[in-house]
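step 4 of 6: structure.
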Amino acid sequence: MKYLDEFRNPEVAHQILEQIRKTVTRPWVIMEICGGQTHSIIRNGIDQLLPPEITLVHGPGCPVCVTPLEIIDQAIAIASQPNVIFTSFGDMLRVPGSYKDLLKVKSEGFDVRTVYSPLEAVDLARNNPDKEVVFLAVGFETTAPGNAMAIHQAAKENLTNFSELVSHVLVPPAMEALLSSPENRVQGYLAAGHVCAVMGWWEYEPIAEKYKVPIVPTGFEPVDILEGLLIIIQQLEAGKHEVINQYLRAVTREGNQPAQNLISEIFEITDRKWRGIGTIPASGFQIRPKYAAFDASLKFSVGDIQTNESPDCISGIILQGLKKPTECVAFGTTCTPAHPLGATMVSSEGACAAYHQYQRLRMPVS
Amino acid sequence: MSSEFMPVLSCPIPKTDYDTIQMAHGAGGRLSAELINKFFLPHFGNPVLNKLDDQAVLDLPAGRLAISTDSFVVDPLFFPGGNIGDLAINGTVNDVAMSGATPLYLTAAFVIEEGLPLETLLAVILAMAEAAKNAGVTIVTGDTKVVNRGQCDKLFITTTGIGIVPPSLQISAGNLKPGDKVILSGTIADHGMAILTTRKGLSFKSHVASDTAPLNGLVAAMLAVTSEIHALRDPTRGGVAMTLNEFATNSNVGILIHESRVPVKPSVQGACEVLGIDPLLVANEGKLVAIVPAEQADRVLRAMQNHPLGGDSVILGEVTAENPGLVVMRTRLGTHRIVDTPLGEQLPRIC
């Protein structure tokens, strides 16, 4: 399959690995921001192939993982109301709230549905004018255009029975928050290729300059990731800190302008709480006042919710790259994908779930 | 709904007072009799069923009896490559055949939602009759019930199959031995992706069709070259990953498979990539996984490849003493990872 097979080619991957081995002389800690890349790294065992000098740490780029508990609890409260059709991407249904998850709400007889696109939720609103249709709009810059488009479409059709519960997060402020932390170990970033496909990579240039870290927008296949790592390691070894784009087939410096225009028409930047990490200034989107009619957090009175986080879950530390999932005492014992304590064990993009699914044992490379 | 995949009827709809199912069709009176006599018997009819007794009385050959039952609730009823009727026959035939048995007889029970078009029911009946003929089995008894609108979704079918196991065979998921080979009979994930891409809401164009097929002929071809087959299973819900994990657990052995050998059609792979789904976890309805001693593997593989339903058969991997209870994949990069059981359904009601 074009654009996939060549980026999964084992010969090319091993040639790049050889270049990495020849280039590296010292220990380096590199973070992949995006949970999709974490999944690909663990699934393909890329971490097993790297020379021992290279430590990969896994970043907070899993939207399911960083959606704050308050939002999950609000979603559960809204979904538990009669006359509501509550819609969401599939993974969010299994994220534990303080006391239950959305699947439990569904089994209690409420109308909770998985959709593949927020526009499906708009279709539902059009076809069920006597119901309130709510979409749980989470994610990074990647899902923002689709979620903005849904509100744009609903507004155009005057579908006042459609609304979104928004918990959008942004990558660059999170990268800065991690870099400015006294505990920071990260010396270079693989940036998320699909985020950059929407937003471009110009926003990373001041971060690379300020914190002296190389940043490389990178794709998701093994060859992409290895090439991204090579570009970072070459820079680290040479004392450079530039933004260099690996994901040439999808990403430009300026990004997708129509998508950005749509986002800024519907959303504005706000402070946002990240589950396990805390509030990061100017790190999220919220619906602009002009579109307040489509804001589920205003339409439904669900503000006053007391959350209850599991004390055994260290997902915040995992999401900051300070510990590996296997260093958590609950990993694989009291916390499993079937009974997750925290969101990092739920989504396939969560580091804990990826380790549990693919690498519970350390296995040989042959 | 799925009417675009409903086949053109090969016979006219019998004349009745109604064109949809009424509650009275399940009430045991005149309409019930009409449904049986005009719709079911002309297509399923055989000397045992035609007696219309409350039970089938069968003369069976000597040997051990294999029996299996399965309910079919697939949504949509018609999809590319098949329909609920094909699944109801082939699914149960395959479950019986995975013991090495020759499937002989089926029972069929129908739960029908009030309001189902009789044309739809007839299309399913015709598909079942054709599938039963292809599989060489006879439907010997059955039942129909009608429920109020909204109490089931259009049509649910339960079939039970029986067959006779030849005396020498000991085929079971608990029989795997280290050194055995794992053989897969062809491309994976066709059925599950056909259902998924047909579902309302997933409107992208694809050329993916269900692989629903009766596997008893393929099993017979394999048994013709050796009776030394340790385990057989058709990897339906949960896909090949689920079947291999069940084998590894039941036999307390490890299984090593090779990523480069996993056969997936490009169209199916494309649909899986778009939706972020691992084809190893997706249902099949016309494939089998066989565990065979290494010294028999090549002969069995050739017999499978010479059968119309096994042309793409491959040796996927081998049974190991290491990692008991786990399935491990050697990736194209030469690394290893666990192939886990799927946590839940990728999608409900796929069969």
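step 5 of 6: annotate
 - Chain B touches chain A at residues 201-202, 266, 269-270, 273, 275-276, 323, 326, 328, 330-338, 340, 343 (CB under 8 Å).
 - Chain B has a mean pLDDT of 93.
step 6 of 6: archive
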